[in-house]
């Protein structure tokens, strides 16, 4: 049990020490020196930032060096304050007892630690990550400078719970979170480097490039997590107790996610679709712009982007306009009246299609008489173009050229004509002057 007498004595000793400390004039002298140094550091920092034009100074420099110089200029006040604290500390140590300048030493060490941390974290581009890493590292450094790091570690390592042979403590959770964040960050840098090398390889098809990049990123992440688990002393076998729950979760709640993931791997492996293909899936048509783990992105060309799950490409009908050949057949159906010469109509249609800029010269156009309908003759014009892109535009241009050719040759396009016959006499007509007609008896 806690001895109340010892506790009372400890509290009294602490109160006396604090009272003696606040009664000492050296404390107020150190605080005054710190305030003066802070004012001088702030003025010097503001003057430096006003005099130096960072935009013109770092123009053309590498991005990491530009960021480092920017952080260095922003930290001028901290550097000046640190230098003034070190000078004041040395002056007071030479003039009086070293114990009378301990507050200046602590302030110098804390600001120096913050300056070093900010310069080291200048290579990180994410402001949120920079803020979290900087504050966390400085907090640990402050505990070490004040001599409280070991007591804090012992305090965090005290309470814990047992999970399948694993003792989970707050210290273990903090170490795991920090090491995992660092490992995932390094794994992301490594995977980005490898993905850039894979994308620059012209010997690999786009689908193989996407498959390799996904495998590289997944492998690096798994390796980073396993390495961190082993570093903090967590045996992966101890996590086997959660495998049953994970299996149930996958079976009930994550089956679609797993199905889309496996479908994405299959699509990347069999090369049925790849980035850049023009596809039609249900009512969605467009060009594949990206293939992700769970879905593909199809750009419609009008600003819309369809996010289609990978499972739909496995289980549903998919039209790939550029699977083996980009050449696309365009069909134009039209009709003429019976006064026109069908052979002349076919010749005009073939000439109009052949004159199209994107029409294929290897596969010549063809025009067939398909039907003698009630209103006229039906024709079908087919021709090939080099790509399905802009197919409707090419079709419209050919139809406009065909219309102009029909006008020149006097060929008429049939349209429905209906006659209205009224039995039993004419309908009554209203006159504005005479008023409404009387109804027949």
Q: How are the secondary structure elements laid out?
A:
Blueprint: H1 4-23, H2 25-51, H3 54-57, H4 63-74, H5 76-95, H6 102-120, H7 127-145, H8 149-156, E1 161-163, E2 166-168, H9 170-199, H10 206-231, H11 243-252, H12 255-270, E3 278-281, E4 284-291, E5 295-299, E6 305-309, H13 310-315, E7 318-320, E8 328-336, H14 342-354, E9 366-372, E10 377-385, H15 391-409
Antiparallel strand pairs: 1-2, 3-4, 3-7, 4-5, 5-6, 8-10, 9-10
Helix pairs in contact: 2-5, 5-6, 6-7, 9-10, 10-12, 14-15
Largest sheet features: 5 strands, antiparallel
Helix content: 55-70%
Radius of gyration: 40 Å
* Number of H/I helices: 15
The largest sheet has its strands arranged as 6-5-4-3-7
* Distance between the amino and carboxyl termini: 120 Å
The arrangement of helices and strands along the chain is HHHHHHHHEEHHHHEEEEHEEHEEH
How many β-strand stretches?
10
Report low-confidence residues grouped into runs of 5 or more: 431-441
Tally of discrete structural domains: 4
| Proportion of strand residues | 5-15%
Structural class: alpha+beta
Mean pLDDT: 78
Indicate the overall shape. elongated
């Amino acid at each position: 049990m806690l001895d109340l007498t010892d506790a009372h004595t400890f509290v009294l000793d602490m109160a006396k020490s604090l009272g003696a400390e606040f009664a000492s004039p050296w404390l107020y002298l150190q605080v005054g020196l710190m305030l003066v140094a802070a004012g001088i550091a702030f003025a010097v920092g503001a003057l430096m930032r006003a005099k130096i034009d960072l935009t013109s100074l770092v123009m053309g420099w590498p991005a990491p060096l530009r960021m480092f110089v920017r952080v260095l200029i922003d930290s001028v006040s901290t550097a000046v304050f640190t230098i003034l604290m070190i000078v004041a500390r040395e002056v007071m140590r030479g003039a009086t007892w070293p114990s009378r300048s301990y507050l200046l030493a602590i302030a110098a060490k804390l600001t120096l630690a913050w300056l070093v941390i900010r310069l080291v974290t200048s290579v990180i581009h994410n402001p949120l990550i920079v803020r979290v890493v900087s504050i966390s590292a400085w907090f640990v450094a402050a505990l070490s400078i004040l001599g409280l790091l070991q007591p804090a570690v012992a305090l965090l390592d005290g309470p814990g719970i047992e999970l399948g042979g694993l003792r989970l403590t707050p210290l273990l959770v903090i170490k795991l979170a920090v090491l995992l964040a660092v490992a995932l960050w390094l794994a992301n840098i490594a995977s980005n480097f490898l993905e850039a090398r894979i994308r620059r390889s012209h010997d690999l098809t786009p689908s193989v490039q996407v498959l390799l990049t996904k495998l590289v990123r997944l492998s690096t992440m798994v390796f980073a997590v396993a390495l961190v688990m082993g570093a903090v002393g967590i045996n992966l076998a101890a996590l086997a107790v959660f495998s049953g729950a994970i299996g149930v979760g996958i079976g009930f709640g994550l089956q679609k996610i797993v199905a889309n993931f496996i479908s994405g791997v299959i699509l990347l492996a069999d090369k049925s679709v790849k980035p850049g293909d023009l596809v039609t899936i249900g009512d969605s048509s467009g060009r594949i712009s990206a293939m992700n783990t769970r879905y593909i992105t199809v750009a419609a060309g009008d600003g819309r982007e369809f996010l289609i799950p990978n499972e739909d490409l496995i289980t549903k009908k998919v039209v790939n306009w550029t699977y083996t050949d980009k050449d696309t057949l365009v069909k134009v159906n039209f009709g003429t009246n019976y006064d026109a010469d069908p052979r002349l109509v076919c010749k005009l249609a073939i000439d109009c299609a052949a004159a199209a800029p994107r029409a294929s010269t290897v596969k010549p156009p063809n025009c067939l008489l398909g039907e003698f309908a009630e209103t006229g003759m039906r024709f079908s014009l087919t021709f090939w173009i080099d790509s399905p892109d802009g197919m409707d535009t090419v079709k419209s241009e050919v139809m406009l050229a065909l219309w102009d050719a029909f006008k020149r040759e006097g060929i008429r396009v049939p349209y429905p004509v209906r006659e209205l016959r009224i039995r039993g006499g004419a309908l009554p007509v209203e006159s504005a002057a005479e008023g409404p007609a009387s109804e027949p008896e």
